[in-house]
Design brief:
31% helix; growth factor activity; Cystine-knot_cytokine; alpha+beta; single chain; 11 helices; Cystine Knot Cytokines, subunit B; elongated
């Protein structure tokens, strides 16, 4: 008898594939050889096992495509130590060369060291060994080219030679519980031939440049932003009131684009198409020469500011390298006509850098306030206090926002009070206690800008009155 576990394929986060290729590319050391940590990451037992195929993938990202199996499930033969993985391959003319089956996990495996033999007529060679450790996050299996273009199934048995380790193998593939969904994401990597559809695939096409830029932006924001450990549940952005969304593209007005470039409001970058392997495949702007020059100058100034922040603040090491890649992907050339795509990427980079710089400016002001000898006295007076909240995870970033809060006493003399608060306070001090006392509340706000992409377009949503800018007694 066989026990068959569900065939629900986990959703993968935006940039999951691009992140994997970035790690793989950075894992190539001197002499064009893979470093040991990369071999462990991909479950490769010895240098000779799959290392040449993995190195080939690292060097040929520009000619690779990705397909998602139509369905996947795991079955277990009772009384045996074998699990069988079944993958329904999509009908596609793209699978013309030996594909690579990648079993990807969202985090490194922690079930302990485990040697696993994967066997199938669909693999080349038929049996392939994988060495799993606590730092392994991907399992790489080399397949044969499918025969014909019809839908096919790959059935791959997974077996460990140590019976006591069978439960560990189940933990890896299905979470260890009967009836659980599979815990890995299967992906088919293949070489693209000339003339194939290049939409939403890896490489140097305009579409993939946009995807690579946004995924690099996500990595940069993760590395550059001040690290905060928030215990509050993430706030869904769609729960906020919003002005009607405005499309950002070739038809956008100069007035709108100029206003966004000059805006000081923090910007959040989101993906609506959450389950997509390649979450965005479009984005162009057509700026006038004057506005393009303004964008170029502002970007140069903000890059200098960001470089200083990275040098002086406690910023993660990967931020500098990631910023360099973003500069290359969004370069605006003075001696030639800039493409709409490069304008689009430069525009997004400016807004991202402005947001990061603003967050560090808040931290700097907080440090200055704490260092001020009179700050202990002022702490009790109504005023702004930093308040960081966690945002929904369906983001490029940032994953949090400082919305500020108002806190402190509204005793006489009242801070930033209006006439009503003054009269109210006087009434209470005269001995009347039947009304509420003036409270410290926000009296002015800044908006939050959210740039989002769905399957068709990019748009910006203005969320008004999100960030407290000024406090007063009311």
């Amino acid at each position: 008898m066989f026990t068959v576990y569900p065939s629900i394929i986990p959703r993968i986060a935006p940039c999951f594939v691009d992140d994997m290729f970035t790690v793989l590319h950075e894992g190539v050391g001197d002499g064009d050889e893979l470093i040991n940590s990369t071999l462990v990451l991909f479950g490769i037992c010895t240098v000779s096992d799959h290392s040449s195929r993995l190195l080939d993938l690292a060097n040929k990202k520009d000619s690779l495509g990705v397909l998602h199996p139509a369905a996947a499930h795991v079955s277990e033969e009772e009384g045996q130590g074998t699990l069988t993985l079944t993958f329904d391959l999509p009908q596609s003319p793209l699978l013309v060369t030996n594909p690579v089956l990648l079993l990807a996990f969202e985090s490194p495996l922690t079930q302990g060291d485990l040697d696993v033999a994967f066997t199938s007529p669909s693999l080349q060679p038929n049996t392939q060994m994988v060495c799993i450790s606590g730092e392994t996050q991907y399992i790489l299996l080399t397949g044969k080219s499918p025969e014909g273009s019809a839908n096919q199934k790959w059935q791959i048995s997974a077996e460990t030679k140590i019976p006591a380790m069978k439960q560990n193998l189940k933990d890896i593939l299905i979470g260890g519980k009967s009836g659980s969904n599979i815990s890995m994401t299967p992906l088919l990597l293949f070489s693209r031939e000339r003339g194939t559809d290049t939409r939403c695939v890896l490489g140097s096409s305009p579409a993939s440049l946009q995807t690579s830029f946004l995924c690099e932006l996500k990595r940069f924001l993760g590395a550059a932003l001040p690290q905060k450990h928030l215990i509050s549940p993430p706030l869904p952005l769609d729960s906020l009131q919003s002005l009607p969304p405005l499309t950002l593209g070739l038809s956008s007005s100069e007035t709108l684009l100029a206003a966004i470039i000059n805006s000081t409001a923090p910007t959040i970058f989101a993906f609506t198409s959450w389950g997509s392997i390649f979450p965005v495949c479009h984005g162009e702007l057509a700026l006038s020469p004057a506005l393009l020059e303004e964008l170029r100058q502002r970007l140069e100034q903000t890059l200098v500011q960001m470089t200083y922040i990275i040098r002086e603040e406690n910023v993660a090491q990967g931020a500098k390298k990631s910023l360099g890649r973003l500069k290359d992907l969004s370069a605006l050339q003075k001696d030639e006509h800039d493409t709409g795509g490069s304008q689009f990427r430069a525009f997004l980079l400016l807004k991202a850098l402005q947001t990061v710089a603003q967050m560090y400016d808040v931290q700097r002001k907080l440090r200055a306030t704490r260092a001020n000898p009179s700050s202990s006295e002022m702490r009790h007076v109504c005023g702004l206090r930093a308040l960081t909240v966690s945002l929904t995870k369906l983001l490029v970033g940032p994953p949090s926002a400082n919305i500020n809060s108002c806190h402190g006493s509204c005793a006489f003399p009242l801070a930033n009070a209006n006439n009503h608060a003054i009269m109210l306070n006087s009434h209470i001090e005269s001995g009347n206690v039947d009304v509420r006392a003036p409270c410290c509340v926000p009296v002015a706000y800044d908006p939050l800008e959210v740039m989002d992409w769905n399957a068709e377009e990019m748009f910006i949503s203005i969320k008004p009155d999100v960030i407290a800018r000024e406090c007063g007694c009311r």
